[in-house]
Amino acid sequence: MAKNKSNKTPHYEMLYIISNKFTEDELKPIRESIKKEIVDNGGAVTYSEEWGKKKFTYPIEHFHHGYYQLVEFDMEADKIASLDRVFRISNEILRHMLVAKPARSAKEIETEKRAAEKRVAKIKEKEEKEIKKPEKKPEKKKQVDLKDLDEKLDKILETDDLL
Fold first, then answer.
1. Which of 19, 82, 104, 124 falls between 20 and 30 A from 116, CA-CA?
2. Global pTM?
């Protein structure tokens, strides 16, 4: 075995989107079948997170919304290709992305969640401050005296260069 190779099972992360033609009740068996497929291929699911229903930036297969799910698992590298093929031909999954990632502990996951929540809170706070900023009052225009206005008009009309 090479020096830079480890004997640990590789860790993967998969984000997938289920089409919104399914109801919330129909999602549970689909999610379970996906986890079962991972386990049947020799993997072990280490973390799973539901992101909920979100609107797409552009339509995917004529759908405008989908249910996002994140799954982390350990699996032998030679079985990933067959798992990817199964998800590619699945009718329930619109899109999926599999990436190799270093394994994270539960503490690291919790720390990342808190950091993300803090970033979101700061952004919301900044947006609220921008909304609450008092609008600048328009400056009052100077009152023009009618005598001054008449004098200026007379000067303009006295010139021969009008045409």
1. 19
2. 0.64
